[in-house]
Amino acid sequence: MFAEHLGKTMEVYIDDMLVKSLKKSEHITHLEQCFKILNEFGMKLNPAKCSFGVPSGEFLGYIVTERGIEANPNQINAFFTMPSPRNIKEVQRLTGRIDALNRFISKSTDKCLSFYQILKGNKKFRWDDQCEAAFGQLKTYLTTPPILSKPESDEKLYLYISVSNHSVSGVLVREDRGEQKPIFYISKSLTSPETRYTMMEKLALAVVISARKLRPYFQSHPIEVLTSHPLRSILHGPSQSGRLAKWAIELSEYDIEYKSRTSAKAQVLADFLTELPLDDGIFVETESTWKLHVDGSSSKQGSRIGIRLETPTKEIIEQSFRLMFPASNNEAEYEALLAGLRLALAIGAEKIIAYCDSQLVVNQFAGDYEAKAPRMEAYLSAVKKLARKFKEFELVRIPRGENTLADALAALASTSDPELKRVIPVECISSRSISVEETENDNILEAELIETPKLSSGNENSSLVITRSRIKSQDDELTPPLELPKRKLRRKLKDQEVPIKEPSRTEQSLPGDVEVQETIEDPDITSEPEPRKFILKDNTSANDWGADWRVPIKNFILNGELPSNKWQARKLKIISAKYCIIKESLYKRGVSDPYLLCIFGPEVEIVTSEVHEWLCGSHSSGRAMAFKIKRLGYFWPTMISDCIDYAKRCKKYQMHAPLIHQPSEILSSISAPYPFMRWSMDIVGPMHRSTRRVQYLLVLTDYFSKWIEAEAYISIQDSVVKTFLWKHIICRYEVPYEIVTDNGPQFISNDFEDFCSAWGIKLSYSTPRYPQGNGQAEASNKTILSSLKKRLSARKGGWDDELQPVLWAYRTTPRRATGETPFSLVYGMEAVVPAELNVPGLHRSEAPLNEESNSKLLEDVLDTIDERRDQSLIRLQNYQQLTARYYNSKLKNRPLNVGDFVLRRVFDNTKEEGAGKLGINWEGPYQITEKIRNGVYRLQDLDGNPVQRPWNIINLKKFYC
């Protein structure tokens, strides 16, 4: 009803209506518009509940004035007059009245925390001094409740957030003439799991809760989150937890910017001057003792390690690793200890107690056991080297039963449950923590420790926050992401070798005239394979690849840069929520894989050619190749379409592609309007040589009546075909209009073509290697052979003697297509079969026995035979339509045009010699020179020589070059 006025001059909620005007002179006009709509729909108003021309009024329980939205005085008075609660019911009544005023109360959950704690669980009622003080403070606050402002259309709004140990709060404000005015206060108490979030996660949760509760404001206004903490970096960080990634995607829907907080410009924002509680343990006491539990194990499924680091403030850091190299149990225990020590060093721990259940590791470190094995000696040296970097370090052996948590983390590395891996990240360690080298002189083994740089952050405070997600970011520096096997790659550019940086090649572009070579050293191969050459386009430069798709995303994540277009900026924010920066390279967060390296341009060509056709390639299809590249840890936005296009243009992939059996053109049925107009002709054989030495059948079938004429011959030449046509077709029935046949040499000879031309018979040939083109003949051949096999016993040489009985049986059997027997459609009456002679039926016993009556009855039937034939033609056409409908339901359109290059299916006479089953399935390419009809084309080879016969599309496949 009021759709065009809502939000402008009217507000409506169920049966409450508000007509508003900025100017007094316009109010009458706005009322008139409202009354006109009410009269149009026959609605009436209650005068007792109406107020007109007032500067303020009540709407939905609030007081709407020219200054803004104010709390209802009746609700405030009800709160003031309420005495201190004396039981649980009155506390519930108190919290209900507070909820009604929630949007006006800053950090309401913190102010009312003592009330909510009374209602938790089945506690006895206890109203103490703390509750009374909170009750009095709340009454004092509501003596001057804030006035909430109304935002203008498309106005930028600002969000302040605050976090305590038990709640998250926020306030949405707008700026009016340099003054910040509140729009809405929100607050939410934290659940038990949420109280264990890190402070950075609580700050992000405050933004998420604000967006959910104030969704209409977030959808229709740009929002600036004013915070002194790097929230945007945390939400887009590579080490974020699963919940942070989920929140980042949820918030990407809105136009949100994160800006550094300035001083608040209004007294109503005083509660939000501090974002975090002052007494919260944000800073790590570096002088306190850390506790490290490690465990490693090895099995047939591989080696894995688990780390559990406990901070002095009792925060738990858990990590699970899978070792990508073979290791014994003792080596896995050492790897777990080294990884845990590197983790503690990177965070800044100075005093640490390490707990391990390996008797060997602890006793070797203490000097009680001697490290005899070279690797054990190297591992021990690496542990001692790391231990010296702590102010205090102690290694304690504990029973395996007391190290169950670390053992569970190690087992997590081999689990297949994706949900567990999202809670605790599972990383891979690709190489040992030591490098063991044998000297030439004394075979002394030296251990070199892999150093790990400490965490660094733009914000000093945030760098000291200990979170599970932050630890994962440090391990990203310890453990490289999944990458392609390293090879010696060389790029030649103006006689200079430019090395490729692996695995991250995102910042490097290949210049023009670049040739990339790589060699792979394999100790099992005596000679090196031929070097791989990546041949790029001539004079290829970085600009030839177009704009780098990674640049806008990186600029937004690093610097917050956005396009000027509003919708493009919004789209970029949504997309960027799924990306992060690791070591200056862009990575995409995967669903099945942790991080995917984003690549572009020449890097895409190198990766696709490697995966498709080089040593690890199998010339697979485009989609399979794209998913394989993704599993290797690479990504770009158009990878599926690019891989499909790449595979399409691979000549080997096209030559060995599977044969095509799916129809590509709609079914074209052939029929005839009357008997003996159109015949199909074919040769069956060679068959088993009979007693009369015959082994071939020449078969002709009438398209209308399905009448078959067939004769057996020792061999069939064009002269035999001409004699058969003259004796069995022309002399017996009539000169046919058309004969459809295949490309057998008897049918395409000049003598036979001259014979048909002399009698005015049109010859039509089906396309080579496409039996369906002469489908009527193939169906007749199938029927004759099936009937012959059933009539023969062990003696197969007498099949020619059974030919005429088979033809008689066929001619006197009703056909499904016409609903009539071929005999009745040709002669007008059904044939008398031996069964009627042996056991006379009604048809024969009741028929007149005199010839004159029989002749007259036959004449009457012949006079009306055209009607029966017309009905059979209709049934035949209906049958063809049903057949075409079924055939066309499987149709897959593959349009080919004149000038296209195609491959032709390989047949027995065109197979590669000696290739056997390893031969190609398609040969060519050929070029289409003419389209004869739908699905039939003339071809020529690449030298311009025409192919003799036209070919059907079922045997052709488009060639991409």
What does this structure look like?
- The chain is an alpha+beta fold.
- The protein has five domains: 149-280, Ubiquitin-like (UB roll); 289-478, Ribonuclease H-like superfamily/Ribonuclease H (Nucleotidyltransferase, domain 5); 488-648, no CATH class; 678-868, Nucleotidyltransferase, domain 5; 901-958, SH3 type barrels (Roll).
- The protein is 35% helix and 20% strand.
- It contains 33 helices and 36 strands.
- Strands 15-14-11-12-13-16 form a six-stranded mixed sheet, sandwiched between helices. It has a five-stranded mixed sheet with strand order 8-7-6-9-10.
- Strand 3 (57-59) and strand 4 form a beta hairpin.
- The longest helix has 24 residues, at 865-888.
- It is extended and about 130 Å long.
- Mean pLDDT is 77; it is low at 278-287, 418-422 and 437-544.
- One of its GO terms (molecular function) is nucleic acid binding.
- Residues 494-505 have a biased composition (Basic and acidic residues).
- This is Integrase catalytic core.
- Residues 493-512 are annotated as: Disordered.
